[in-house]
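Data availability (excerpt). The following record was deposited with the supplementary files.
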Amino acid sequence: MKLYVFLVFLMFNFASSKLEVPLEFRKSWEELAERYRSECICEVGVSPALAKDYFLKGEYSLDSCLHCYIMCNKMKLNLINPATGEVNEHEYVRQAAGITPAIIQKSLSNAFLQAPLGYRQSWEELTAKYRSECMCEAGVSPSKIDDFFIKADYSTDLCVHCYLKCLNIKLNGMDPGTGEVNEFEYVRKVAGATPLIVAQCNNSTKLVKDFCRKAYNMYACILSNVLVQN
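Predicted structure:
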């Protein structure tokens, strides 16, 4: 989800300009989100433990439910238009402590970058032979996976996550019995996935029990690392 990436870059770009985000700003962000916390937790089904102190900690997360929780919060605060996804720069500057127009513009530019076209084409070609089979197995809408890797977007659709799980298993990137990630196969087959990136992403998903979610988190992590590198 590109808007989540925007929020991540918003924190990264702020931190880079200040060495780290000052505690009083992080506290202010947490207080701002507090009024809609319970409502958004119920709306998206995120674990309360993940939502608690999220803005205070300022950590990057691969959890798709948390992404939706953050989107819910931002929409309730009028920071993001719920119909168009457009970022309300005026409201960000007015409500979010320490956020400047320059930081917002830089974050928007970073968040809407694409992974290199060569990588995206390679990912699409790699998965083409299993597309129909995995689409049926996961019950995902064809419109959700048409050129999925070419678009290289983020998704909160659970059927898309299970589609990625199916592809992972077919390509020997994930053990169908244990969910263990095959780092060697990832590096060998996935363009742009270096040993370091794959190891870091695998480490960040080790505690994820749901195979669909784990497959999506690996995808999102690798994509985000490629965007950072390029």
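Summary of structural features: Confidence is low (pLDDT under 50) at residues 15-19.
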